[in-house]
Design a protein that fits this description.
It is a single chain. This protein is mainly alpha-helical and 156 residues long. The protein has one domain: Fumarase C, Chain B, domain 1. The chain has six helices and four strands; from the N terminus they run E-H-E-H-H-E-H-H-E-H. It has a two-stranded parallel sheet. A two-stranded antiparallel sheet has the order 3-4. Helix 1 crosses helix 4, helix 3 packs across helix 6 and helix 4 runs antiparallel to helix 5. It is globular, with a radius of gyration of 16 Å.
């Protein structure tokens, strides 16, 4: 039985990331992490009654325009534009583990079901086809947009 790595948004170590990425360990979000995710999601829904960049508004030069229906999906599609060979599965797993941990810190405003889907994907051994040319890190829009399209069924 492989170990289970707890993701709480505050204490993920490099060793734990490697255990998930290369050792195939399952992950779970702690109660405290789930509470922070839910609180941030509720706050985001509340704030969305006014203008919120990228959520109720368009982005970039159009940031003052109201977002049209389906804006989120269009953003994912326009940013899922990596190139080159897919990254190795262990690197994609590491990316997902780190991202789930970041979401468990609270503040992102993402719906808890999205985090649950990411955890389930990791625990089932599923990885998004993230391309080598793009970015992972502070400029990870390409990889995360691809991941979002996978969760929606638009990518394998």
């Amino acid at each position: 039985m492989s170990p289970i790595i707890d993701l709480d948004g505050t204490s993920l170590s490099a060793h734990a990331v490697e255990t998930v990425a290369r050792g195939g360990a399952d992950v779970r979000v702690t109660d405290a992490g789930r509470e922070r995710i839910a609180a941030a999601s509720a706050a985001a829904r509340h704030l969305a009654s006014g203008p919120v960049y990228g959520r109720t508004t368009a982005v970039g030069a159009n940031k003052h325009a109201k977002a049209a229906g389906g804006n989120g999906l269009r953003l994912l599609r326009s940013h899922a534009c990596g190139a080159g060979d897919p990254m190795p599965a262990d690197q994609a797993r590491a990316m997902l583990a780190v991202r789930v941990n970041q979401l468990a810190a609270g503040g992102a405003g993402i719906h808890p079901r999205v985090v649950a889907a990411l955890v389930e994907a990791l625990n089932q051994g599923l990885v998004p086809p993230v391309r080598r040319i793009g970015a992972i890190g502070t400029g990870d829009l390409t990889a995360l947009a691809t991941t979002g399209l996978c969760l929606l069924g638009e990518r394998p």
